[in-house]
Specification:
Distance between the termini of chain B: 89 Å
Radius of gyration of chain A: 24 Å
Strand content of chain B: 15-25%
Largest sheet of chain B: 6 strands, antiparallel
Strand order of the largest sheet of chain B: 1-2-4-5-6-7
Structural class of chain B: alpha+beta
Structural class of chain A: mainly beta
Largest interface: A-B, 56 and 47 residues
Shape of chain B: globular
Number of helices of chain A: 4
Order of helices and strands of chain B: HHEEEEEEEEEHEEHEEHEHHH
Number of strands of chain A: 32
Largest sheet of chain A: 20 strands, mixed
Helix content of chain B: 10-25%
Helix content of chain A: 10-25%
Strand content of chain A: 35-45%
Oligomer: heterodimer
Number of strands of chain B: 14
Chain lengths: 409, 351
Amino acid sequence: MKGLLITAATIASGAVLLAGQAQAKVLTVTPGGDAQEKIQTALLDAKPGDTVMIAAGRYELTDGLSLDVAGVTVKGAGPAATILSFDGQKSSGEGFLITSNRVTVRDLGVENCKGDGIKSKGADQITFKNLRVEWTAGPNATNGAYGVYPVASTNVLIDGVVVKGASDAGIYVGQSKNIIVRNSEAQFNVAGIEIENSMNADVHDNLAIHNTGGILVFDLPNLPQMGGHSTRVFHNRVVQNDTKNFAKKGAIVGDVPTGTGIMVMANRDIHVFDNEIDRNQTAAVMVVSYTQAYDDLTYNPLPRDIVVRDNRIGKNGWAPQFPGGDVIAKAMGGTIPPVVWDGVTNFTPKGMTAPVAVHVHFTDGPVANLHFSAPGNVFSAKPQVTPTIDDGAIAEPKAVVLPKAQAAL
Amino acid sequence: MRTLLAALAAVLSLGAAPAPDGVALNALMSSTPAPTLSAYRLFTGGGVDHPNAGLTPYALNTPLFSDYAEKSRFLYLPPGTHAAWRTTGALDLPVGATLVKTFAYPADLRRPGDKLRPIETRLLIHRRSGWVALTYAWNADRTEARLKRAGARLDVSFTDAHGQTRQVDYHVPNQNQCKECHALSGRIAPIGVKGRNLNGDFPYPEGPENQLAHWTRTGMLTGAPPPGKAPRTAIWDNPAEPLDARARAYLDGNCGHCHNPRGEASNTGLFLNLEEARPAKLGLGKRPVAAGKGSGDLETDLAPGRPDASIIAYRMASTDPGVMMPELGRSLVHDEGVALVRDYIARMPTR
């Protein structure tokens, strides 16, 4: 009998050991008590494969939360049910920071962070799903900068995320690779959705409404990752972006004119198609060079190989909010045409002997070519409006494919 | 029989000389952190006044500002081990090495060292798997410090150098936040124990001596050049040293741990570590990237000759969590540090 018991115990403990490696735990946090300590402790205790379940309720946080364990899911009971409130936040540059791989944050709401909302830095396979990040008092320069903020990350999925009130970009992806932003909503931010210094992004089926600018694809100098390329912006609704720019100066989005639909700055291989772009007072689509001074001569400030086709373009450009816009509009018959291009084509980066070829395929005309001689050289402008500008077909980047497990989320 | 053995053991231990136990290296190396600081036996007799054998006190030429807290630092080296010199970065420390840093406030900053109240003691332990950061917060009686993995907030007040009472909403960082500053390429690493930042005198009981020389002489450190030939971080508040060197030392110690090409803020492209020499990387004429409202309506990280137009000075002078730099580790403005960096910017030749 004793021998039998020992055998049974051995088998049982062996099973426990196996389970310990393979079976994921759920660490549940409930409202009440010290929310900061409870949630942060769960985020520290979680092991790869575990889920930190934050039950419905309101959690008042005093500091930033952070996760540095790979393979963890942080889940709430819904964006309106589980609320992480940072009204009383006293430190940290963001509400929630993730620095590990294969992390999913889903089904919760984040309110009134003093800095950014949810940030991932250097993470692979980071997923933000069914989230709400909001500054609840509406647009204000004192709101935090970014709502969701993956940076220097790879395999980024942003799906069903709503961001309201960010003083820079609601949904911001920076210096990252292999990105999908879909089924999301950006309202009352300076920039609705911004893809910056990133490679291979698909931005589709989103709604950008009541921002200063709807969707931006930028490439900036003096950063570790430059040379952004291969972004497809398609099947989005970019409508009624009419919130006066409330960014602090200095921030690049501070230069975005109120009422911009889609803006492409620098970058190559950007395809904008099948979007609804309507009721944006400055312009539907602007394609421009980076105009500020910089000292990195490998940086190419020109947008090149850009496609704007098959968009449903409504009424836009009736009261452009950039300097000299009213004069240009008048010269063009009262409104800014659907596509505005600065027309700069002559740039030779360091180490090359001839300018990099610039092709465009703008078929959602009419198109205004401002014919600037150099980035931002307004005085050299020789505006010309043509039905289209078409250098021929430009190969479309392949659809972004995420790792299987992430794509199945 | 058993009772007899126990009695014998008791008699034997009673009869032995009361030698204090050494540092509990096994506790330091255990993957389960001890719930209390005393379990490591880093100090004898309670508190942090009496370091155990194997702990050597040290100081940095230019440390991180931490809300005016006094910091005492010790390096523990396991018996028979030593540190090895590195010209750049932290010294090469053996497995088992532990950095022990206690944050404390005197009642009155005009009498530093008098009536010091320890607030927290942080450990950076070199395990086989890498460095681990732990922090222990002291109880109200200052008799024991308990592990605080999830961080904490503590009310602290002290009298400042001008005789005014200051309140600090003191923040004990959570375990991940330790790493936010102590990260190099995503792994935890020591910051302070760089050869250049240790290259200065320490008031040892037997008299002041250069720390590199002392460590070499006592066998704690091998391979170090003579102090005069080793790189040296300036002392930020020593007016006898050149302004540039002091300001760069300050920026290195207070910003450079994140703002370097392998640090937490690598994505900003703003690098303030002492080794950086490229003007744009040091912020000259560099526009902000992801600063958001942290730009404060200014367009340049560092505008030579114009501290009021420089985002670095603006963010150093703020206590708004969404604006202030560093993001962690302070709730007060370091007035003297801001003054130094402003002076440095003001006197920088305009291009």
